[in-house]
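It is time I had a proper look at our fold encoding. Can you supply me with one protein entry, sequence and fold together? It will help me judge whether the discrete encoding reads sensibly. Leave the record below and I will have a look:
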Amino acid sequence: MKYEAEVGRRKILKGMAVLGLGVAATGCTGGQVSEKAGVTESDAGSQYIFGYGSLIQRESREATWPKAGKSFPVSVQGITRGWYDRVDTVSWGPTYLGALPDRRSTCNGVIFQVAQGELKAFADREKGYRLIRIPPAGITMLDGRPAPPPGSFWYFGSTSRRYVSRDFPIVQSYVDVCVSGCLEVEDEFPASRTAKFAQKFFTATTDWKTPWINDRIYPWRPFVHVPRANEIDTLIRDQLGEKMFRSISLAGARS
């Protein structure tokens, strides 16, 4: 769920990258969570994870889940995504993207295949989140195909909402990972570009707030470390407005 661009944070956040993203297994019908239903032997067919945050980006996905298969862009009815997830830690930490069931909402992201055993092992390990089943009828493919592949679909959902605060800001390095992934998707899948995949990442995400810290390395020359910084910043400005964009703080800058 959570994967930071900074090298120093990768070790801490590597195991969290599936959140953006989160496990007590829960069934889902009609776009809403219903009865609890763990990953069982009956789920013997193809298994897919829906990544809606940092797992949209290939590098983040493969760093967290080395055997992750090829991903495909989708839109899922029944999931709301927002800035309200945190990792409990004794050290500092930002607020991350989380997701919850909501029949009125739609969330875009990618699906990628995992082995059934890998899915169960990960679900057993990630005790702080809910593994939630997605009904195939709620999935719209954004790669040109009329329907999703056969199989079971899951996402890692939040167990609570803990919003952006002074001690838990949004950080640009995490936004960069997520939006870079969206731009990768548009580069690979023309149909997703037509569907404005990157723009919808912003419009389908709630609770864009400050404090928002620009923690890119050498921020005055961000393209050195974030090659698509200008494209990302243009999307932030266009989708969230000039006022929000100008309110993003530079890490270490004096107020």
About this structure: The first helix runs from residue 7 to 13. DSSP finds eight helices and twelve strands in the chain. The first strand starts at residue 26 and ends at 29. Confidence is low (pLDDT under 50) at residues 1-37.
